[in-house]
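Prompt: May I have another protein with tokenized structure?
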Amino acid sequence: MTQSASSEFHVQRGSRDPGETSRRLARWLASLSPDGVAPAVTLSGDLDSNGVSSETIPIHVDWAAGAGPPPADYVVRVAPSPADVPVFRSYHLEGQFEAMRLVGELTSVPVPAVRWLEPSGSVLGGPFFVMDAVSGEVPPDVLPYNLGGNWLFDAKKGDQRRLQDASVAVLARLHEIPGASEKFGFLLPRFDGETPLRRHLAWARDWYQFAAEDLTRSPLLDRALGWLEANCPADEGEPVLCWGDARIGNILYRDFAPVGVLDWEMAVLGPRQLDVAWMIFAHRVFEQFAAAFGLPGMPDFLREEDVIATYEELTGRQVGDLTWYYLYAAVQWALVFMRTGTGQVRFGEIEMPDEVEGLFHHRGLLEEIATVAGALS
């Protein structure tokens, strides 16, 4: 893959001074200690290499003898600052923290244990929480795993299928948490709507308004969102805990088994189809990239029929037709690309295209699904 192709997937992030960040975290952790002893905090990774949403800071904490827990590695998740061109309008770190805590208590889904929450933003410039570090391998996004040259692409077909089935099982276990509406009611979108999905659509509309503030509106998204609202599924089923950004790129694996389910910014109460369609659609986006670069990709991986069959076998629930949910996923991916594209333009990495749809790396797939759904007729 050429450097120009690689840069298409890279997004500049703001940076912090490692020494000052360590000192601020040490002082804050000291305030949590009964005797007020500050631990030694060492940043143990690259501050600028992780993700395009919340900032991720890996740290090593070494408390003085008897003053706290044993030395350990943690990860700090910080809500991004406006200067970093955040993907979302707002970040509810408290909701993420509580969702992960409950999932860890109620299921066997391997989420990192969450330790401490700082909601004020006074320590690092934004709210953050601290969770245990988990070692494992992640299917890369940059460059996407299906373009080759990485551990998952080079694995045996049987191991790839083991990883696929285990990833679908994560969704099944999350969706079968009993009483999700009561336990995870704090994850309902804070927008008006008669149902959880309608409220989620209202949230997406607001996200679109936010994404378009520095750009022009997209005729393609206007039509797609109009169709989604006019054709919202009549039967959403009982709301379940949806992980939200349900991608294998957000899972740490060891021996092709999940050991860490990460990135809960988009967790929500809603129809199970949101997660199932998202997992399938995310791979379709990457397969479109592979085709564009003349690469074989991974056409036998995360196929719709296989994912649905595994999910229905594990849950005993019928998924039904996912066309509406694929288009909704495609719209949300477009909003992500609008925000990351805005950041790339602001940081001088790319020039603004003539039309906003030029930022949509999955434009062809979005148009294909919209056409099948009837949104462009």
Observations:
- Strands lie at 40-43, 55-62, 72-78, 114-118, 128-132, 240-242, 251-254, 257-261, 268-270.
- The longest helix spans residues 323-346.
- Residues 1-12 have pLDDT under 50 and may be disordered.
- The chain has two domains: 11-132, 145-373.
